[in-house]
Structures are given as structure tokens and as C-alpha cells.
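Researcher: Next sequence.
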Amino acid sequence: RCPSRQDGGTPAPTAKVKCVSTSTGFARYSRTGACNRSERVDRRAGARGGSCVVGDRGPGGGVVYYSARRAAPWGRYLEAAPKTWNPPAGDLNVIWCPNVVDSIPGTQATAIGSGRANTAAMLAVCSTEAAAVASAYRGGGLSDWFLPSKDELRALFLRQKLVGGFQLHGYWSSSEGSPNEAWIQDFYADYTPALSDKSYANFVRPIRAF
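Model: Next structure:
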């Protein structure tokens, strides 16, 4: 469930109404103050079971940066840890895994919804570094944070201004590309994801799905 509009962001004007599709459950804010015939008005605050819209505060105190058009087995929303998640330094700069030469089974998935399983597979081999850093975060008192998959990280890059606080550098995904490489997303230009040597330090931003 989505508690509230993200603090520090631009709040929705009072004229906005949250509209939810009656067929898919996808939520949006209406700037006209009215919903379509195929939608219902959702006046509930997220803390009382309201739906989430991209930009809302998530249950873990982060920012909802992705909303699926339909509910999926992994959930519906992706929430990124806020820029203040690791004070005072911010995002941590670490290598992917202490084992930088062997392929890790179960880490090759790249799609949205696969980051949690990738991270679990990493943790079976990597007791420190990127996956351990992400999964150790306890924002909102929750213990289900993880390292995003390649596509989850790309979606985060596309919403980086909404979330805030990113370094102009590469960020790790939990998606392995080869025995000694994993996928990263550079945040200093609109580059597509690329492979990086696992022994090279890149930044980490935890996310969670719900």
C-alpha cells in the first residue's frame, strides 16, 4: 500500500483527483478533477489502502518510481530508497561481489520483477558488497529491499530526477552478464545499460517491490 505523496516533492494540487481503472487497478492523478467512465475515484490516503501513483511516498519511505499497468506476480510498484537512505555519504560505491570470476546461478534475469530473486541468488555467494549493501537497508522498518535488475535499474534511471540524489557514475544492477561482468546503468548521460567488470566499484541504490 502507498502511504502518501512524497515529502519534498511537488505535491498534487487540490484539484487533482486520483483515478483508478476499474479493469486493471492502474492509478493516475487527473488534472481536470474528474475521472473517465472506466475509472473510479480513489479518495483514500495510501495509508488506508489507497493506490499508488509514480512520485508517491512508498511504504518504505522511498519514492514510487514505477507502476505496472496490471498487477504482476512480483507486485505492482517499485520503490527506490530516498537520497537520504545512507547518511551522510549517500549511495555507496562498492564492487559487485567478492567473487569476481565465477558465474552465480540465478542472477542472469534482467526483467522488471526479477531483482529480488537475483539478489537472493547473489547473497548465497556474496556476503558483502553490492547485494549485501542493498538488502541490509531497513527503510520503513522493512527487510525486503534488494539490488535492482537491469530493467528495474533502467526504469529508475528514467525517473532519476523524481527520486534524486544520484551520483554521476555507474550503478550496479543484480543482473549478471558473464562470469566476470554484471550490468550497470550510467547516471551521467542517457546511456543504455552496459557491462562492467565485477571488480570495478559502482554505486548502489536499494529498491523494493510491492
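Model: The two ends are 8 Å apart (CA to CA). DSSP finds four helices and 13 strands in the chain.
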